[in-house]
Amino acid sequence: MGELKVRTRVTGALAVLPPGGLPVVTTPTGGTVDVVTAVSAPGFNPLDLLYASLAACMVLSARIAATRLGVAASLGEVRADVSGEKAEGDSSRVGRISITLDISGDLDQATKQRIVEDAETICTVSNTLGTPPELHAALGG
After folding, report:
1. CA end-to-end span of the chain, whole Å?
2. In the chain, % of residues over pLDDT 70
3. 96, 71, 65: which is closest to 83 by C-alpha?
4. DSSP 50
């Protein structure tokens, strides 16, 4: 049996809030996202980024699931629509997140459902949100 090669990627995010400005988020690999706060401003706000992470992870995980099931060649476009609702009485927390996966391709409904279920199990972001990690905030130097 061949040796399994695991590729890793440095992950994380750095948000910088300049005086009087809006945050800019960068990744260790050089990606950047400008963050907006106005209700009608186009772009990502912090909750959009959370939902975007989950949506991206779910569609990628759906592709992995289809590959594991041996149906990747029949998989068409996969879309993840993610939204959330604030927790009742607690405006500083999301109480419910909904994910709808639309899967096209030459697959029957049972296979599509299995892909959805497997994707949720594979997705690191959905697993993290389902069992939140410990959070530690500290003052830096």
Report:
1. 49
2. 96
3. 96
4. H
